[in-house]
UniProtKB/TrEMBL annotation:
The UniProt record lists the keyword Phosphoprotein: no
Record-linked Pfam families: Radical_SAM
PROSITE patterns: RADICAL_SAM
InterPro entries: Elp3/MiaA/NifB-like_rSAM, MJ0683-like, rSAM, rSAM_sf
Protein name: PA0069 family radical SAM protein
GO molecular function: catalytic activity; iron-sulfur cluster binding; metal ion binding
Superkingdom field: Bacteria
Length: 357
């Protein structure tokens, strides 16, 4: 790592200016010198929870290439600190930075369960899969204490409503009892995010996530319990994890995964500057090479916002990744597919119990 001061346990190494703010803030060198002289920290890196009470909880997803129609996020911001996370930009809408604020200031939606129940009981609502979470991880560390995600799963079960899940935290194992009941009626599908098989890579890319060992164990336990589980290798980052595709797909297939998906890194909005700053401190020996390779994938830019190409990229590298996944699926996942979620039961459970007449 670079000799520049590196904040261990965090992904982003600084706060960047919020594009919606009228004023910009910066930490000046004289202030840093003062802190060093006085033995004080220039910034507090502890995580704080901020309670919120939104008016709605279900988000309609209009992007055509993310594979979901509706999402639900019990938390905004994410303590996992994944440096590449596209959701960082959403923190700016709340008045915070997409950098360290995204990891340190976690907004907790205290009325999430109440809002979900109200929606599922609505006469106008027709069942379609709702994804936990399309933006930030529903099993980030604070969930261990607050149990909002668990209560949401209980609500989906009560109303027999289909739910999908995306997480990189082994805490999901805590809720196996509810997941088994949902799976019995084909009401749940889980995606475990695994970016690398190397713990060293995981620690610097995703500093506060579950270990690779625990995530692989989670895939195996879910599969053994007949809970449909797939894996997302997202994102593929050139010169960091692209060489692991075949090995990772084989490993998760051996653990019982029904499928594997992927995206290629794109550094949209403020994330380009956050990632560039991070990689020059975390991987100075390869920083410029990685950034140039990302630009080559996206037509000379760190980001591509075009639907259809933004997730998979273009050019030689993107083609190689595409071919490797095609080969890996043929070798290790042939004839496997996840069952379609059941949207037919919910209408009979609108009031929380099965209608007899």
């Amino acid at each position: 790592m670079s000799n520049e001061e590196y904040i261990k346990g965090r992904g982003a190494q600084k706060n960047v200016s919020n594009r919606f703010d009228e004023h910009r803030h910066e930490i000046r060198a004289d202030f840093l010198n003062y802190c060093a002289t006085e033995g004080e920290e220039p910034e507090n890196h502890r995580t704080t929870m901020i309670e919120t009470f939104p008016k709605s909880i279900i988000n309609k997803v209009t992007s055509p290439d993310v594979g979901m129609d509706f999402s639900l996020n019990p938390y905004q911001g994410c303590e996992h600190g994944c440096i590449y996370c596209y959701a960082r930009n959403s923190h700016e809408f709340w008045g915070y930075s997409a950098g360290l604020d995204f990891e340190k200031k976690i907004l907790v939606k205290r009325n999430a369960v109440e809002l979900l129940e109200k929606k599922l009981k609505s006469r106008s609502w027709k069942a379609l899969p709702i994804i936990l979470s399309g933006n930030t991880d529903c099993y980030q560390p604070v969930e261990k204490e607050l149990k909002i995600t668990r209560a949401l799963l209980q609500t989906f079960l009560k109303y027999r409503h289909p739910v999908g899940m995306i997480t990189k935290n082994a805490l999901i194992q805590r809720d196996m009892d509810i997941l088994r009941e949902l799976a019995a009626d084909n009401l749940v599908h889980v995606n475990i995010s695994i970016t690398s098989l190397k713990e060293e890579t995981r620690r610097i890319l995703e500093p506060r996530t579950a270990t690779i060992k625990k995530r692989l164990e989670t895939v195996e336990k879910l599969a053994s319990a007949n809970i449909p589980v797939s894996v997302m290798m997202a994102p593929i980052i050139p010169s960091i994890n692209n060489h692991e595709i075949l090995a990772l797909v084989k490993e998760v297939a051996d653990r019982g995964a029904l499928g594997v998906g992927y995206t290629i890194v794109r550094l949209n909005g403020s994330i380009g500057g956050i990632f560039s700053d991070w990689i020059k401190k975390a991987m100075p020996d390869r920083a410029e090479r990685v950034l140039h390779q990302i630009e080559n994938i996206h037509g000379g830019s760190l980001n591509d916002s075009r639907f259809g190409t933004r997730m998979k990229g273009e050019g030689q590298f993107a083609d190689q990744v595409r071919q490797q996944f095609k080969l890996a699926k043929r070798l290790y996942l042939k004839d496997r597919k996840k069952p379609q979620l059941n949207c037919k039961l919910h209408e009979e459970y609108k009031d929380g119990q099965m209608k007899l007449f």
